[in-house]
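Tutorial handout. Part one gives the primary structure; part two gives the three-dimensional structure as C-alpha cells.
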Amino acid sequence: METIYGNLQGLKSSQLKQLQRLYHQRNPGDRITTPEFAQRLAAISSEINQPVCTYINRRGQVIRVGVGSPRQTQIPPLELPRYGAERLSGIRCIATHLKPEAPNEASLTAMAMQRLDVLLVLNITGSGFERRGGGATGYVKETYLAHLVPHESASWNVSAPISLDVITNQDFLELVEGLEAEFQREFVAQQVDADHDRVLLVGLMTEGMTALQFQDGLEELARLVDTAGGQVLDTLRQKRPRPHPQTVVGEGKVQEIALAAQTLGANLIVFDRDLSPAQSRNLETQTGIRVVDRTQVILDIFAQRAQSGAGKLQVELAQLEYMLPRLTGRGGAMSRLGGGIGTRGPGETKLETERRAIGRRISRLQQEVNQLQAHRSRLRQQRQHQEVPSVALVGYTNAGKSTLLNALTNSEVYTADQLFATLDPTTRRLTIPDPVTEEPRQIVITDTVGFIHELPPSLVDAFRATLEEVTEADALLHVVDLSHPAWQSQIRSVMTILSEMPITPGPALVVFNKMDCVDGDTLMVAKEEFPQGVFISASDRLGLETLRYRLAQLINYAVSSQ
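Part two.
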C-alpha cells in the first residue's frame, strides 16, 4: 500500500484512496506537470480542505504524497536519491495552497534543504477560477514557481503569479539542467583552493554560561577545527535554558543550520559540545550533512599528531571507545543481516558483528596500554632508585611547554603555534643549582600532553599511561600562556583536571609564559593573583635563570616532604 505522509487525522477512507491513486499518475519528463494532474491535485486538496504535496522524480513518477505544507511533508535529506552541493536532488514538489499567496519562507527553506529541482505552488479556490480571457479552468487559481539559485546573496528565486497554461508548457529540463550547470561551476570554484572540510560551527549558550565564556569556547573550537585541517565558513549561535534532548538546538535553528550549510556549501557541521549518538543521527537526518562534536574534532587532531607507537595506540583506543556507542544509525549497510546457514531466525546483523569486533579490539588495546603503563612504571622506578628527582610540565594546550623544554635543555622537540602540536611525552635531563650547596644537581623534566577545557573522558582514560607521568612526578611546572585573553579560565581548567586525577600530583609552580606579548596591566593582574609565580618568555629565553632557581627550591621542598 502506498504511504500517505503528513497529517491524516479526520480523513475518510475514500479520501485516502484518492490520495493513494496519485502514486499511479505519470507526468512528462520534460514538463513540470500537466493541467490534468494539477487540477486533480487541486480537487483533492479542496475536498479535504488541506494542502497536499506530491514529490515527482525526473522520470515523472510520483514518489511521495503528503497532506500538509512542504515543510510538514518534506523528504529527509538522507533519503533523497541524489544529494550534494554541486547538484539538485532530481525531485520536484507540486504543492497546493488554500489561500492565494506566494510560498512562505518555511516552504522555501524546505525546498532548499531537499535541494528540490523546483517547487510549484498551486493556489486553489473551491469556486473555480476565471481566466483573464474568460471561461472557468477548475480549481487552480494561479501558480508560483520557485527554485534554488547558486548565489550566497539570494538562495532562491520566486516567480510572479503564472497561469497554469503557461507553467505546464514551460521546458522543465532546460530549466533544471541550466541550474545544475551553474551549481557545478560554483562548486568547482569553491573546491579549487579547498582541499579540506568546509565547516559550519554551531554554539549553544545555556544557563550558567557567561557571554565571555561562550565566546571563548567558540573561538577555541574554531582553532581546533583549523588545527584539524578544516575551514570555518561561519558560526551560528543560539541561547536556550538547556540543550534540546533530540537536536541540541531548537527546531527552527536546525532549519537555519541546514539552510546556511546549503548556502555556504558546507560539508561538515561542528557543535561546541558533546552530542549523544541519537542527537548526531537526528541532526544528520534533518540536515543531510555530517555532524560531529567537539570531542571528535579533538580525537581527529590527536590521530594526526600521534607519532610514536605508544601515542598511536592510545589514540586508537580513544577513537574506538568513542565510536562504539555511535555505530547504530550509520546507514542501511549497518542493518544488513549476516550469514544464516544452519541457524534459526535471521542470523546476526552486520551491526552486531562490527560491534563485537570493535569490542575485541578495545580489549587488546587496553591490554597493550596496561603493558605500556607497566613499562613506564619500571622506568620511573629506575629513576627513583637512582634518586633522580622528576618534574612534569603541565598546562593548557599551546601554552609553550615544548618551547620551554627546548629552552631549558637545549633540545629540539617539535614546536608549533597549534593546539596539541605534541602528544608524546618527552623526557630530558636538566642541570640546576642546589639552592643550599650551590652544587649542580641532575633532574629529569618531562613534557606532557596539553590539557583543554572539558578534556574528553575517553582521552583521559586512553592516555592514563601518559598522564601517570604527571601524577608520579615529584613536582609540576604549570605553564600558562599569559598572552591568551582567557588565561585565568585556562588555569582553572588545568587545576580541575589535576584535581580529578586518581593520585594527587606533587606541588606545582605556576610559570607565566609569553610575558613579552602582554601589556603592563595584564602583568600587574597576574602578579597580584599569583605572587609566587615566575614570569618568563621561553621563545626569547627571558627569566630562565630565575626559573631554574625557583625550580631547585621546589624540588628541595618536594623531596623533603615525601
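Part three, for discussion. DSSP finds 18 helices and 17 strands in the chain. Confidence is low (pLDDT under 50) at residues 127-138, 329-347.
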